[in-house]
Amino acid sequence: MVQRIIGSTALLFALWLIMSGHYTGLLMSLGLLSAFGVTLIAHRMNILDAEALPVRIFIRLPAASFWLISEILKSNLAVVQVILDPSLATPTQVTVNASQKTAAGLVTHANFITLTPGTVSVAVNERQKKITVHGLTEELAESCLDGSMDAKVTWIENAPS
User: Fold this and answer.
1) What is the band of 160 on the pLDDT scale with cuts at 50, 70, 90?
2) Is the distance from CB of 22 to CB of 32 less than 8 angstroms?
3) Residue ranges per structural domain of the chain
4) Is residue 161 predicted with pLDDT exceeding 60?
């Protein structure tokens, strides 16, 4: 539990530093104190668990980000084609089977789908491990069914502890 408190405090303080832009001694010490206070409140509320702070996912997320950016760029080109020729739009809804074991992994998968232009995750069924996806075209919707994104998110989720 001490590791979670230290990790959460460090993460919140780093986020505060990035967003603040002020690096005087007083403000940095108050920022660290605030981050620690928020972490203690979260600990007291029993919400500082593996799901709230999925450190395992953070380890592999940078490597997967490059893959996600390439997927976003590819689907952007497909969306531009539909914008230039609206008759290409064939809205479709599909159901994607997900192999993630945790709620954080399933939500990450749904968010990756939504980040990819032309597709939106409209519903997530945690019990059945299914994500309902709306696509701007049949091709964009069906690209979620090929399993590559599911495999990548499962790889992220199974990072070593």
Assistant:
1) low
2) no
3) 2-44, 56-157
4) no
